[in-house]
Amino acid sequence: MTVPNECNIIDGLLGLGPDILLEVLSEIDYPLDMQQFLITCIKIFKLKNHRRFLSFLDKFSPSIAIHNPDPSKIEFSDVDGVQKKITYLSGRNNTVSLTQVLENGIWSMEAQIQNAQFRCGAVGIVRDSHQFLAGSNPSDFIHKNHCIVYSGMGWGPDGSVYYKDNNNLGNEIYNSKQIVRSEYDSEKGTLIWFVDEVQQPVYITGIKEKVRFFIYMNYAGQYCIIKSLKKLLSPTSGHVQNKKVIQCVEQLKELILDESQLERTSNVFKRTMAYVMNIGGSAKLLNKIEAMKFIISRTVANVFNNHFIEMDPEFSEEIGLIVRGKMDQDQEIKEDNYEQNEQKQ
Fold this sequence. Notes:
The protein has about 350 residues and is α+β, with helices and mostly antiparallel strands. It has helices at about 5, 20-25, 30-40, 40-45, 50-55, 250-265, 270-275, 280-310, 315-320, 325-345; strands at about 65, 75-80, 85-90, 95-100, 105-115, 120-125, 145-150, 160-165, 165-170, 180-185, 190-195, 200, 200-205, 210-215, 225-230, 245. It has 3 domains: about 5-60, no CATH class; about 65-245, Jelly Rolls (Sandwich), CATH 2.60.120.920; about 250-340, no CATH class. The chain has a 7-stranded antiparallel beta sheet with strand order 1-4-14-6-7-8-9, with no helix packed on it. The model is unreliable at about 1-15 and about 320-330 (pLDDT under 50).
């Protein structure tokens, strides 16, 4: 069986020339996969200096394009070949989303809203299946269930993360002089913000669908410079104090609908048969409701436990949330199992 030290040699993978290897590199869609492929051996690592290799990186820094809901009042222009400018020509609510669908990796957008006067506007993400109309505010009834908003100065409450009628405070109130970077990890379903590269404590997790970035403004003459849109090799986020997680638990909405349906379509006799005999359509709906309650309870418990562990690790260890040395033991078990499997092969 091939082991790593047999591959990590000069001129490894004999028989494959640079043209073939470059062709393989051109087909890789994940930055991390490309990084891992490059370090396979010295011969392949040298390909990073090839002129063709630079063209492969363009796919990780896509061109910036927008869905313009009101071309007569919103101007989209180029700044320097990379940066783009969105200018509001009329004082009216408008939300502009980018065309790039955020999937298969980690995406980052840097934006700076300028000439803000009393309101800086907002940034966020929206479902790919949803489109903003002309004159839209992301908090409008028809939009609020499809997007997540991080508001700037004057878009109250200031600095809040807005999701489904809930304002979650704790992030910095950014203004027109600051750069806000949104980082979305499609694999983990997390959305984290940075203000002038300072990570913010309130973030989103549990996103399980395709989304796009958007910018909201509402003053004539206000404009936003999109400084970059890129795909990252790895997350740039780390641990921050007072971290607060907002779970996108769609199961809760589904649970409420199922309970309403059970109430409408069943009577006392049907519900009794469902509880006692576990038969009929009501029983299936009841089983689904109980399963959903279990999932939601477990999710909430995990979020609480993780938050509690970060806030007070010593007490968490006393009550059993943390077992000292458990992670090391688990790692040792994994390594032993790996060695046993290797020996069997």
